[in-house]
Amino acid sequence: METASFTIPLWLDLTAVGLGGVQGALFASGFRGERRLDLLGVAIVGIVMGFGGGAIRDLLLNVQIGAFQNNWYLVTAVVASLIGMLLAGPLQRLNGVIVGLDAIVIGMFGAFGTSKALGLGLPILPAVFVGVAAAVGGGILRDMLMSLPVAIMHVGSLYAVAAAAGCLVLAVLDLFGVPLFIGGIVCVVVTSVIRWLAVVFDLSLPEQRMLYRRKVATETGVLPVIRR
């Protein structure tokens, strides 16, 4: 996966695909009742999570989709999905592990997307956009595949915002001459920390939170409604 001035090491890209596959399988295995999936369904969700971010990144950059240029991508995604299914039971009560893994996956895909875009010569803001799209792309495809509300479109813990913060930090560091590899590590750390703290402390965008509180206050009578 080469660009004009930046190369994503194969082992590192496969690591992101593998972690995405595990996280997707863990997510899908947690459903019960009508939404319960069979082994094939869980594996497909894991593969989509593993491939989604990188595929969206490459499509936006108009380059060959890396996952289709090497046999190891599909092998890694399938094996990771199987591992995720095996770990679903033991990790069922360890939600923090799943959240932490999700945060790392977001950070890695964001870092790879932004770095590759910068390596191809894109300006800062388009490069950050590509990174955010790569970071949240797998989750969007997962939700659509499972007929769930797309997470980033609804009130909840910071998701795309965490990715945007990490990608922006990477782009700024690159502007000051910091090597992309180091900037990528910082991007993953920043994204993961913001995402994890947002989940732990139930943080969301201020506008969403204020609208929600105003709605609740109105419905409960705490906030008077003026009728004309």
The CA-CA distance between the termini, in Å, is 63 Å
Strand percentage, roughly?
under 5%
Annotation, overall tally of beta strands: 0
Q: Tally the helices: what do you get?
A: 8
Mean pLDDT: 83
- From the spread of the alpha carbons, the general shape counts as globular
Poorly predicted ranges (pLDDT <50, ≥5 residues)? 221-228
Helical percentage: 55-70%
Per-chain topology:
Blueprint: H1 10-29, H2 39-60, H3 71-88, H4 95-119, H5 124-145, H6 160-175, H7 180-200, H8 206-220
Provide structural commentary.
This protein is mainly alpha-helical and 228 residues long. Helix content is 70%, strand content 0%. The protein is built from 8 helices and no strands. The chain has helices spanning 10-29, 39-60, 71-88, 95-119, 124-145, 160-175, 180-200, 206-220. Helix 5 packs antiparallel against helix 6. It is globular. The N and C termini lie far apart (63 Å).
Distinctive features:
mainly alpha; 70% helix; globular
Give a short synopsis of this structure.
The protein has helices at residues 10-29, 39-60, 71-88, 95-119, 124-145, 160-175, 180-200, 206-220. It is an all-alpha fold and 228 residues long.
